[in-house]
Amino acid sequence: MTNIFRKATLLVVSLLIAITTTFAQKASSSDPFVIAHRGAWKEFDLPENSRASFHKALEIGCQGTELDVWLSADGVLVINHDPDHQGLSIEKTNYKDLKKVKLKNGEVMPTLAYFLKKITKQQNTTLIIDVKNSKISAEKTKELAQRCVEEVKKYKAQGSVQYLFGDYEAAKHTIAMDPEAKVSLLGWKTICAAELNLTAEQVRNKGVYGLDLNLMAYKERKDYIKEAKHNGLKLNAWTVNEETDMKWFIKNGFNYITTDHPRQLLSIWNK
Question: pTM for the complete prediction?
Answer without folding.
Answer: 0.88
